[in-house]
Amino acid sequence: MENDRIFIGGGGVDYATPQNMLLKYANRHGMIAGATGTGKTVTLQILAESFSKQGVPVFLSDVKGDLAGLSMAGSPDNKLHDKLVARAQKIGFDDYGYESFPVVFWDMFGEKGHPVRTTISEMGPLLLSRLMELTEAQEGVLNIAFRMADEMGMLLLDLKDLQALLVWLGENADELTLRYGNLSKSSIGAIQRRLLVLENQGALQFFGEPALDLDDMIATTPGGQGRINVLAADRLMQSPRLYATFLLWMLSELFENLPEVGDPDKPKFVFFFDEAHLLFDDAPKALLDKVEQVARLIRSKGVGVFFITQNPDDVPADILGQLGNRVQHALRAYTPRDQKALRAAAETFRPNPRFDTVDAIRDVGIGEAVTSMLERKGVPAMVERTLIRPPSSRMGPISAKERAAVMAASPLTGVYDTVVDRESAFEILKKRAQKAAEAEEKAAQAEAEETEEAREFTSARRYGSSSYRRKPVSSRKRSSRKDTPVDAFAKSMARSLGTRVGGKLGRGLMGTLFKML
After folding, report:
1. DSSP-derived secondary structure letter, 517
2. Under CATH, to which class is 5-117+218-398 assigned?
3. Are 257 and 214 a contacting pair, CB within 8 Å?
4. Cα torsion at 455, 457, 460, 466 (round to 10°)?
5. pLDDT digits (tens, 9 = 90+) for 482-503
6. Which residues contact residue 237 at a Cβ distance below 8 angstroms, ignoring those fewer than 6 apart?
7. What are the sequence ranges of the domains in the chain?
8. For 110-128, what is the mean pLDDT?
9. Mean of the pLDDT values across residues 176-199?
10. Is the N or the C terminus of the chain less surrounded, counting Cβ atoms within 10 Å?
């Protein structure tokens, strides 16, 4: 192995011509394409091995579980051992041998690797809108939510933060509409429902802290090998939009956080985007523009991006034109559409006068491909039929016990295992709601006391003299015996006489008084 290149395989008529990728141009991106079962995974595996040996850390997603074998050395007991050795000899791979590589396992669900998380704020409204398939109006509401969080100084870390903020927006929609435009409660409700779907898909574990520190991925071993970061994606692929958005978020974070390095002698980091068609399926133009911008500019950060997909037609033309290093495995052309795609794929290569590129792409066998790498001055080489070199690590999955041993020896053990839930939008809004409820309760209590005082005042209970205080009606003793007609008549007569006598006495006293005057 030379220090300025990595060996892909043997090419030419007799496969004696080495096909190499120059490290200086590895940040010009690349593509691995081909039908299912033609050898894309093995090509990805040997590229990861080669970059690691050159001191370049890489990231890749393990969709089928096969790439976990990078952590274990191949074995002569493998039933393919004789074929692998024969191929190595045929292409001049003289120093071929078995070895393991420094692998760090990651898993969004925290089951098959270190938990990988990000925050709602870091994801941003554009990617979240893509993730939830929001309409333009709903995306506008989401942007307002992020704007309000910034203005109020509230962190958006996990799903419950965003859910709480949306509830607050709905309660204050009338006031906020005057400042930010229409803020319909139906749009807020639609976003809440989409968040519930995300939660059911497992995004609850993805959003939170501690968030992934990319420096933990862009690392080398004490011996100088680049770490191979393997994301367990077999379960994640059940939510393809979440998978694609997560990988795009990683690309965006690399682009925004890494410093400019110009054209280094070798990449600082290499990112393999497997099942790349999931990124571009039904993607809005704003998202495609962002991907194109990242692909065009991230190479100046020393990052190489390789898209792995079945057909080059899966990648938009503006992005495809920036992928300088190509490995094209076989394409099967059974329908007119397939034949058209085959011809389009062949036209992306620099022709070789020795063979027809269309026929070569259709006829290459398993573990064979047509390749074109960037040569000196970044010029694409002529397309060549190439036998891909055999991998040095294990081909296939590893056992749960082997995975556990690799994770136990990881330098990141314990760093991301415990969830941290610091004060953010949910806690802040909850406290505000509690204070508002307490204030409302106090106001209601004060109003009730004022009402009681007013009632007591009207019933003459607020006078200070106890002698004047009227005894409660309930304290009066009432006879339970009804008066007879005779008793009632006697009482009526007594009242009548008392009234007459009192009247005469009153008039007599008043007359005497006036005479004296």
Report:
1. -
2. alpha beta
3. yes
4. 120
5. 454 445 444 444 454 444 444 4
6. 63, 243, 275
7. 5-117+218-398, 120-202
8. 93
9. 89
10. C
